[in-house]
Structure prediction request, 142 residues.
Amino acid sequence: MFKKTIEYTDYNGESRKEDFYFNYTKTELVEMETSKLGGFKSYLETLLSSKDNPEIMKVMKQLILGAYGEKSPDGKRFVKSPEISEAFSQTDAYDKMFWEMCMDAEKAADFINAIVPQDLTEEVAKMSENASNVIPMSRDNS
Prediction:
């Protein structure tokens, strides 16, 4: 889990300093990694080197909002939903974070590294290797 403290001004003109939380489960990361040919990490590296700014901004938004959630009071769950992500996207805190990531490649890389572990590609490769060794069981429908 990645915690980011953001200072911002709310729409009542009040200065605020709040902690925001971002997390991807291992399942979500594997789904992301396998969603792109060659892996999501490779896709990000290619995208960043392409300098395709509109696409970079679109992916950054997806990464931020996809990782954003709220911890349950008992700490057992990290709750994410389209409504929670949308509510966050409507704050000045999100605006500050988004522009910080878009304007500072190092901060964007730090964020991505915090939510996408470096060893994920290796784990996915191991999973793919293991999956190819599994023989699917057939069902006898008689």
Remarks:
- The first strand starts at residue 2 and ends at 9.
- The mean pLDDT is 84.
- The beta strands are 2-9, 15-22, 68-71, 78-79.
